[in-house]
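User: Before I run my own analysis I want an independent prediction to cross-check against. Here's the chain; please return only the structure tokens and, at the end, one sentence I can use as a sanity check.
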Amino acid sequence: MENVDLNKRLLIALVLSFVVMVGFSYLMPAKKGIHPLEANRSTAAAATAKPMTAKAPAAPAAPLSGASTPSAPGAVPSKTGTLAAIATVETAKYRLRFDRLGRIESVVLKEHKYRDKKGNPLELIDPAKTRPLEVRFADTALNEAAFKTPYRVSAAELNATTKAAELTLTQNLGKVTLSKILRFYPDGHYDLSVRSEPATTFFITTGHRPEADKSRYLIVRGVLVRDAKGVITTVEDGKAKEKVTIPDGTILSSFDRYYASLLYNFDKPFETVVSPDTGNDPLPFITVHGANAFHGYVGPKEWKLFSRLDKRLTDAIEFGWFTFLAKPFFRIMLAIYDFVGNWGWAIVIFTFLVKLVLFPLSYKGMMSMQKLKDLAPKMKEIKERYGDDPAKMNQQMMQLYKKHGANPMGGCLPMLLQIPVFFALYRVLLNADELQGAPWILWITDLSRQDPYFILPILMGVTMFVQQQLTPNSMTDPMQQKIFKWFPVIMTFFFLTFPSGLVLYWLTNNILTIAQQAYINRAYEKYKARLKAKTAQNG
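Assistant: Structure tokens:
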């Protein structure tokens, strides 16, 4: 009967699925498109996308040297370059510069943990891509003029490191004057009031997503829009082939793994249009009819900061398919971190708590696997005797299970329950900005980066091997046995370059599983001894 090896086959399938999915995405990252998030989340289908209500702007004939040349909201810029900065803003979090077209051309993070590979302060904005706060007009003539006319500023230098400070950007386009009034705060967020006088239709963008993270892990990059009902739409890099319109957005975010450029307004929803950009990457614009006001932010996606600004803003932190689990998991880990003051120990303690919660199910499942292991010779005998009669073989197998209280599905449930748990934690430990620069002990000085000496991955492989030796094995297929034997080597190979925080979780989980299995093995031996004594008394 095929069910006898179901538990091990499931484990093989799960691990191989993980290896294929994560390994392939790391070695050969695929382009992705629009997809729904879990729970109360959905995606607006491109086929039913609401068309823009305003006329798309035409390409300006001769823009300022180095200016992006748009043909429509979301169009590919035809010319890029560096424009002289007209204003510099200092906050406690970053140094930000505006170019002559009133766009954010540079955001350099100040905190020491934000460094590029060369050790320099991290720059979030790619000057070759569409920049945050770029404005495009529905009127062709105005749009042409807008990319030829520099802005005037109220101050060339603005200090918002200790208290809020205000900056005004003004562009005179002849018949129309566009103004952006920004109030920056020390924590990096800002208020934005944008207005055209007289009123005309224009579009403002969060720009192309930050280009600070170059990793190839299984993560999402692109555009995120939250609507007034809390439904979240993500348009990933790679396949933004059609225009998508969300008429009642409350958050618009261009994001990568750790960083985001976003605008939000929970009191007055806004229309957002997401269009294809270079390489079918998404580029979003907000439609403005005359005037509107937003709150904005460019920087790392920090949970505590977003919660302090507005709890709903944490929806801009993307955790993928298992967000409904990942969010509460992260909150628990954050509470543990606030208590112990170390993210590494927070991961260890959280893993212990997960094991504790799942222990009753794991206990039943592992006891069932122990029984199946003892029954393996009898099951093999039934296979050999009734191999030509599957119906009879199944009948005999079920009688055997019933007689000895074994359940061939008993070990599946704990494994199935751990699938969403693992992948939710996978996304948390990959996406949480809080792990950047977070040390654990000794040589682990940054849980968001790989172990420099590969000690954790090797220990993980060793513990996986020990775990195999303790776990009951009812496999009779030689091929399955060989594959299962190589699991520790395969997993060690893939985890060599994974963030040490994720490897620490897996290592801790293995150690706890070893302890759990050893306990259950002893409990099963006692169970067999009692059963044997009872049988002897009855006999």
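Sanity check: The longest helix spans residues 343-386.
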